[in-house]
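EI: anyone free to look at a 168-residue chain?
SC: sure, send it
EI:
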Amino acid sequence: MLKATIATAALLAAGTAFAQAPNPFDVIPDKMPFDVPYGAPISLEKAEAVLTAALAESSKRGWKIICAVNDSGGNLVSFKRMDNAQIASIDIALHKARAAVKFRRETKLFESGVQNGVNYLLSLDDVIASRGGIPLVEAGKMIGSIGCSGGTGSQDEVAAKAGVALIK
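SC: here you go
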């Protein structure tokens, strides 16, 4: 009887020691995160200027990248591919731009989430867990997004931010 009591106590103690921590995703925020309203779509002229700035930064650094600008509805407005940029980056740049505008946040946040074990992000349609996709916000409204690919994630992000700087 004593052995059974000790075994039961040990199991209860072990169960308590291995209890799961509270899930941080069960917290209900007061406000909707990333609640930037969609605005009128970016013009072709602005999209071209954004791409020109992104590619100029890349060229200055000797990087060969591809960039896409989408409008506030997630549709492609303009696209540029530097000579000899890797072909795989065509679809990746398009995907980064699409994800940034659809989810109203930088794709760097998805990358960080996946690296930190928030793997449910991978189950969401159209997520890409790689930096270089950034929303374009003007006067508090999302007018589009830029997606760059071809270098490392940090290189793609630097190029995209050079384009974003024209909007702010």
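EI: The domain at 44-164 is CATH 3.30.450.150 (Beta-Lactamase).
SC: 👍
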